[in-house]
Amino acid sequence: MKKILLAIGLVFSTTLMFAQQTTFPVNGSYDTRPGMFAFTNATIVVSANQTLTNATLLVKGQTIQAVGAGLSVPKGYVIIDLKGKFIYPSLVDAFSSYGITEAPAQARGFGGQRQSIFVSTKKGAYGWNEAIRPETYVKNIFTADSKKADELRKVGFGSVNVINRDGIARGVSAAVTLNEDADNSLILKDQTAANYSFSKGSSSNDYPTSLMGSIALLRQTYFDSQWYSKQKEEYNISLDEFAKQQTMPQLFEVDGWANVLRADKIGKEFGKKFIIKSGGDEYQRINEVKATGASLIIPLAFPKAYDVEDPAEARNVTLTQMKGWELAPTNPAVLEKAGVKFALTAFGLENSRDFWTNIRTAIDNGLTEKQALLSVTSVPAELLGISDKVGSLEKGKVANFLISSDNLFKNGNIIFENWVQGKRFIVNKMDVSDVRGTYNLNVDGAGALTLKITGTGGGTTAAIERTGVDSVKTTATFTRNGDWVSINFNLKKNPKGDVRLSGYITSANPITIKGEAALADGTTGRFTAAYKEANKETPKKDEPKPSLANGSVIFPFTAFGAAELPKQETVLIKNGTVWTNEKDGVLQNADVLLENGKIKAVGKNLSAGGARVIDATGKHITAGIIDEHSHIAGSGGINEGAQSVSAEVRIADIINSEDVNIYRQLAGGVTTSHILHGSANPVGGQSQLIKLRWGKSPEELKFAGADGFIKFALGENVKQSNFGTGARFPVTRMGVEQTFVDEFTRAKEYAKAISVKGNNVRRDLELDAIVEILNNKRFITCHSYVQSEINMLIHVADSLGFKINTFTHILEGYKVADKMKAHGIAGSTFSDWWAYKNEVAEAIPYNGKIMHNVGVTTAFNSDDAEMARHLNQEAGKSVLYGNVPEEDALKFVTLNPAKMLHIDDKVGSLKAGKDADVVIWTANPLSIYAKAEKTFVDGIAYWDIDKDAQIMKSQQTEKARLIQKMLESKSKGGKMQRPMGDAPRLYNCETLENYSAELTEKEHAH
């Protein structure tokens, strides 16, 4: 073997360096002879679908000349006998930042922490927003990184797709090899895909600050590109490049299954089929992910177990985090079973050495070896359009291949060599395959020990022994990846806690392992393990691993989720006090029949053959509560306040079905919520009406057929009285008025322009929404407090010809109720909020009653996740403060908000034909003692007080199981992380955040 290695070295020193033609001058003798090698007697895995035994691989220069069994070796080839060895295609990673300098972290910015920047400061004829940078080509900025290349080659990679991970439109990626040569000789394909994300990256522009802003900016860029290609007035490098890139593969990086669905939705809108680099949690919504039809690139960076030995700290770990740790390794298998095409990536691994450990963990959790190999070879090559070069071992392809000791996925397998573009890279010494034996182990901080390595495949298990006063024997976790060795054990005392060793085989005779030691108290040192003698016992045979027992996926994937969702059924609720909200008023000892998601009948002595009967004797039955002003169920920010107008953004794009507040509000009888943009600017984003269908997907929450609404705002927030730099217009109430005047004036001009046939008018998503208002196709709900500002907006609306639908959380409505009635404007208010800031100084708890008495359609809203849990009690306050009749008071949170939202033909009262959104209360619904026993949405009991008790009990049992499983993982040396709280974000009107900066922080934290 040593003679063979020497021969290879001699040939390489004179031939391979200059095997290919080059435009570069040579300083020295010029030798163009290609290296010619014949690898014989190997098991050659040509691809995941073809394996040859006792076969030969012929390589000349950088190219595979032939592969097959029984091949004759041509004259001049160096023969390398690989009997007992395996040859595989080198791995392909479809997503990497190799060779790219990481973009500088974006300033946290928005909210007054730095100077506002509204348009790009980039020099040149580029677009207005720095997050749109399609002009960036990796081929122009790529520089090989020998250290990183060596790290990836040791894992088994021969080529990677390099992406510049900066911006929303990121430019074009390139496929490169991991050879060591001039950069220009490493590029396999200079343009593999146009790349996108929802993170604006290092852009210094304020906009966008939110996820919905990122989506809107990308959507607008598609329209701008279409317009740009038809005009001759402007030259714009960014739009020019964006248009050119639409015919190449499109690759979109996202951070979770919900964003997989969002990216796919954008793709379908513009006729694009994205390859999506996902976050690895697709198993949580596999049906929805599969329905996209997208090909995925999924990470092998599985979460670490949480260190839950301390019960106090264990309480900080949520059920979502625990189940996510357990089920993340099942993700590849779930995707395989669902028939989703996917590649695996090493991107995101804390240490690239974890790649094989994690891929074997995925195999233990159901991923087949065939699919695993496909996902790291031919699939990524196909996705990137380089399958004619890499991904399998075939004639004419690039000579990227691995030589290994065994099946690539077998525990204990060793990758000996990784040949890249016909150049040999030694990963591990081919003559050190068996490290079993007894070793003298010396560890700083732990002293002299005995290490015994046993098992099959050259060593798979280990034990530690210490003799003397503190004698102890313990098992250890032992992981070997070629020359790299990891050993974890616990001596219980001296030192206390886990001891973690990580090192390399530094000598083959005698075998010596050296490296770093880390103790539980945080101290570090060195260790040395020197081979002493062979083991005396007979090695144990490999035994089949038992199938792993994992918990179920729950919907939603959070507390109070369930493996199976409640079903729609025919339900007869009998003998209750029925608050109809219709002319029949309140019926005593009456029945309500629910069938096929609708109210079938309301009356006395109803019957239905196969219906489930609920005895409501002594109980009250009402329509579901409707919250006109809510900020639950959103993600990535509820405000897009970087500009004074953000009518282009849509809450519909960011609905979060996993928000536990949906469940909590069902427990308070809420069935419908109007999810509004915040109040950071005069014209905010488009709102979304949802039904609280707990466990359904984001799209399934949306209230079908409802009119579109949009959030406007007045007051201190929109002029940034308490935040911001003062640079963003407007900063006065006069400026707020002018913002409205300008916006509607522009919208009228825009509508006129697009009505002219043949005009090449730039599609403007912001103005589209304003035109919808002018055409009575979208309706305004306006955040309001002070009488003078309310009068101002009414005047602006009159003068510019648009209507205001609702003044929301209006606290001085009692001062302008007559004008509101005359203009047909509804008023949604707080029941008794006052004195919490200057502009509510004149709020009174009689506001609702006065507006109601004047004839204004009046409602009480929450604007607060907690308050929405007891809106029934808020309605009751109108009885306390203003002696509002009880039936009218209940309408403040049922029928009246339904009227405001134009859905009173479907919900808000108990009437045959309306949606079966019904609540059963234990007492008068306006009472503080009333509890919602059951809450039906579309005839489905999404809240059941008895089932809730069962869910809490079962989930406590589930958490206990998972805690025990984590403790077992720790005892076996598994990697751990400290428990960190993961409380859901609670949004309100004033909530500001920077979505992109938070994404970056989250990535670095993991």
Rg of Cα set: 33 Å
Structural class: alpha/beta
Q: What are the low-pLDDT stretches, counting only 5+ consecutive residues below 50?
A: 1-19
Question: What's the oligomerization state?
Answer: single chain
> Main beta sheet: strand number and arrangement?
8 strands, mixed
N-to-C span? 44 Å
Report the helical percentage.
25-40%
Kindly estimate the percentage of residues that lie in beta strands according to DSSP: 25-35%
Query: How much is the average pLDDT?
Result: 93
Count of extended strands: 45
DSSP summary: helix tally: 25
Overall 3D form: globular
Keywords:
single chain; 1006 residues; alpha/beta; eight-stranded mixed beta sheet; eight-stranded antiparallel beta barrel; 45 strands; globular; disordered N terminus
Short description:
The protein is α/β, with parallel strands linked by helices. The chain has 25 helices and 45 strands.
What does this structure look like?
The chain is α/β, with parallel strands linked by helices. It is 26% helix and 26% strand. It is built from 25 helices and 45 strands. Strand 24 (484-490) and strand 25 form a beta hairpin. Helix 4 crosses helix 5, helix 16 (733-754) runs parallel beside helix 18 (787-800) and helix 19 (813-823) runs parallel beside helix 20. The longest helix is centred in the C-terminal third of the chain and has 27 residues, at 945-971. The protein is globular. The chain starts with a helix and ends with a helix.
